[in-house]
Specification:
With about 120 residues, the protein is of the alpha+beta class. The protein is built from two helices and seven strands. It has two domains: about 90 residues, hypothetical protein PF0899 fold; about 35 residues.
C-alpha cells in the first residue's frame, strides 16, 4: 500500500516545517491529489492518521483536494476532462497525440499550526 509511504512523507515534511516555524501542534494539512495519481483517498486518510502518531501532526485534519484529469490534443488544441478510466483520445479529432495537463498532482498545499498561522507550499 503506497498510501502509507505517501502519508509518512507528508507527515515528515509537515513536522519538519512545524519544527522550523516553532509550532507545537499542527491543526490541518491540505493536499492536492490528481485523480490519476493512483492514490485512494480513504486509504490515504487512514494511513495519515497512523503516520501522525506521536508527532506534532497527531490529530491534524487532512483535507484532500482532488484535481480532475484534463488533456489537450496536440493536433487541434481541444481540451477535455479525461475521466476514469482515462480516455486519452481526442474527442474532437480522434488523435492520440495528446498532452496530459492535470490529474497526476500530489503536493502539500498548506499546513496550519494550532495558533492559526500557516505555511503555504504551493508549486
Amino acid at each position: 500500500m503506497h498510501e502509507m509511504s505517501i502519508a509518512a512523507a507528508v507527515v515528515d515534511q509537515v513536522a519538519q516545517a512545524a519544527r522550523e516555524a516553532g509550532a507545537d501542534k499542527v491543526r490541518s494539512v491540505r493536499l492536492q491529489v490528481g485523480e490519476l495519481a493512483g492514490v485512494v483517498p480513504d486509504a490515504l486518510a487512514f494511513c495519515f492518521e497512523l503516520a501522525c502518531t506521536d508527532t506534532v501532526v497527531a490529530g491534524a485534519e487532512l483535507v484532500t483536494e482532488t484535481v480532475p484529469a484534463c488533456a489537450r490534443c496536440s493536433g487541434c488544441d481541444t481540451e477535455w476532462a479525461v475521466g476514469m478510466p482515462p480516455d486519452l483520445t481526442c474527442p474532437h479529432c480522434s488523435s492520440g497525440q495528446v498532452a496530459l495537463l492535470s490529474g497526476r498532482e500530489l503536493r502539500i498545499l498548506s499546513a496550519e499550526w494550532a495558533d492559526h498561522s500557516a505555511i503555504v507550499r504551493e508549486g
